[in-house]
Known about the structure:
- By secondary structure, the chain is mostly helical.
- 33% of the residues lie in helices and 0% in strands.
- The protein has helices at residues 4-21, 39-44, 59-67, 81-93, 112-118.
- It is globular and about 40 Å long.
Amino acid sequence: MKFIKPILMAVLAASAMAAHAKYNGEDRGRPVMPSVTNAKMQAECSGCHMAYPPGLLPAASWKKIMGGLDKHFGTDASLSAADNKEITDYLVKYESNRWTSNAAPLRITDGEWFKAKHMGGEINASVWKRESVKSPGNCSACHQGAEKGDFNEHNIRIPK
Length: 160
Ligand code: HEC
Ligand code: HEC
């Protein structure tokens, strides 16, 4: 009986983590992101910008993005059918519906919530024009832990 308890505890902890990794509507407005990674996505989606954590968009957005990689924001980012499926499955599994509308934007930066946090607030408009920032989608320019899904306000440094 001695080791049954630790095993049971480990199983319970693992299932609690699994439940936690899947975010639904309830995380709306909260800064928490799942820091899960997928090697294929890391390899295929980080060449032109950071590999965005899947919790940044709802499943419908990821499906649209992955369904149109041949015309991806003016570039061709298409993949083999197998790679596309693996990455789509991963993104959909860890998606999150944190946005304030039911829309499925192609851009994280088009989300209502993103705009509320970043535009017209404490970030001066001139910051977005800096060479070190380039684009609102360049999360890691300011969020030190962006690639790990960490957007905690204590880990923000706006570059000069
Ligand atoms: C060949 C280069 C390239 C590759 C590879 C690529 N992207 Fe992109 N992606 C872009 C460009 C260019 C933009 C638009 C950047 C901008 O306007 O700031 C973009 C923007 C995005 C955005 C919107 C960011 C925002 O502004 O909110 C998402 C989401 C995205 N890409 C996901 C992916 C995923 C998922 C993959 C891997 C399957 C991928 N990208 C691979 C070039 C690429
Ligand atoms: C120019 C710098 C900059 C860029 C680029 C940027 N952010 Fe932010 N972000 C900030 C600042 C500053 C705040 C704090 C705003 C506030 O609390 O009012 C913030 C807040 C946030 C928060 C809320 C954090 C909290 O604890 O409330 C999240 C989540 C977030 N950003 C995600 C993103 C994502 C995702 C991207 C890329 C698609 C991104 N940010 C790009 C500067 C930036």
